User: Fold these one by one.
Assistant:
Number 1:
Amino acid sequence: MSFSIGIVGLPNVGKSTTFNALTKKQIDIANYPFCTIEPNKGIVEVPDHRLQQLSELNKSAKIIPTIIEFIDIAGLVRGAHKGEGLGNKFLATIRECDAIVQVVRDFQSGDIIHVEGRVDPASDIETINLELIFADQQTLDNALKKSRDKIKGTKGNEFKEYTKQIELFDRINAKLNEGILIHDLTLEPEEKELIAPLNLLTAKPMMYIMNVGESDVSKPITLAALQDKVMIPICAKLESELAELPADEVKDYLAAAGITQTGLDHVIVEAYKLLNLITYFTSGPKETRAWTITRGTLAPQAAGKIHTDFEHGFIAAEVVNWEHLVQSGGEVGAKEKGLIHLEGKLYEVQDGDVCVFRFNV
Ligand SMILES: Nc1nc2c(ncn2[C@@H]2O[C@H](COP(=O)(O)OP(=O)(O)O)[C@@H](O)[C@H]2O)c(=O)[nH]1
Ligand SMILES: [Mg+2]
């Protein structure tokens, strides 16, 4: 299963342009047999320069990057939580996503109407976030009603559990009333577990794409609403043109512009980080491959991403940092320098580890 990012925003802000550019680079779907193909869903490879270097080192026949899924969700409008503009349907789609990318329009164009009549990023962010907040409040109100019904006649631990729930839902609801998104609250792990089944929209991690005009790509953006937020300025139109070009022309363009990656690559990498995901590698003559795990995953579960047998029969992992491996000229050199370490069941796999798993079948 891959992680999915919902692209959210008002109509006509550049969501589909961004989505199309993201998904233009065709991936070899045969490598990801569990992926379904739907028109508004796109599988995107996560760019990672380490794959190239490992593959050269081990003369791998192929490279398999890790992926995330983007979902193009139709525009939300004011009143979406009340069902305006098919709002409920779109909100339900967002509910299924693991994280949200909010596209905000900051480009002027006489031809393309703004749904609220003027280009005003701060107000657009407020409109969208308010709709998400209203939707969450409806969810919480329903949950509160259920909990208040169920608590009647309970005693002891059961009573305590429902009391805890009601207190938490009330407290979160009050914060939403102040316009605070749930992902900005500090919640205890236990509290996060209590709200997890509700799939609250503003509890999902969120980042912003500021879709700026062609001439404004390097202009600094200072929006109070986005302080402390992950925000990436791109020009969606320019990105969609870049996505059509062959790789070496993109390289030339980046060099001329003095940047190392396209805006879209930046978006993909940040989205991956937003999901709290890290990458470990397997590398040999057959293939060099990136594997996605959540930060904090232990070696057996990480091995289980490759095959369940690897997890069940896990004995140990031979681990080396990718850079150490490359700098040592390969496994033999790394072994001589003592850079390959043997790890057991409690080892927390690190970003950039190259792993060989030993297991019983
Ligand atoms: N000038 C300009 N037009 C853009 C840009 N991004 C999108 N558009 C145009 O705005 C219109 C709406 O874009 P679209 O991606 O369909 O918006 P969506 O409704 O958010 O999916 C289309 O005609 C796009 O070509 C941009 O960065 N600059
Ligand atoms: Mg669209």
Number 2:
Amino acid sequence: MRPGEIPVELPADFDAGLYFIGRIRTPWKTRAECPKNGRLTREICTIEVDPRYAAALEGVEKFPRMVVVYFMDQARRDLVRQVPRHLGETRGTFALRSPVRPNPIALSVVELVGIEGNRLSVIGIDCLDGTPLLDLKPHYETVDGSPLQRT
Ligand SMILES: C[S@@+](CC[C@H](N)C(=O)[O-])C[C@H]1O[C@@H](n2cnc3c(N)ncnc32)[C@H](O)[C@@H]1O
């Protein structure tokens, strides 16, 4: 922990369960090696979907961009105030994209550059090799573009 950071006691029990639906394969073995966000890399990474869910991939080839939701399994979960290295000042967890949060759920909008069976090749992801996959959704410019562009 850095000076100014504040932990809380987490609840004794979880409120919900999740299924990991696959793993994300990247070249990065340490957090320090990972890009800070997906926009900072052109590395082609692989999303390996569990074969159990392969049928759920039908139709994804129609979408040039996908939203990837993943679980930052190496992150601590108890900090409500943090001092990110790049900011050097204290900020509330919900004002940050830090993986350190009560539910360490991350998302990236990726470019889909290939599909082979249950493996998707993507550009634009920022996580450690082996990070658990939680969900995949199509990215819609109309829905996911700037929220200021309301009709
Ligand atoms: C700042 S977060 C952004 C995540 C996502 N793009 C978002 O906005 O929700 C990305 C950083 O999380 C860290 N990270 C990557 N994979 C992780 C994992 N499996 N567990 C914990 N931290 C991870 C790395 O330091 C990486 O640079």
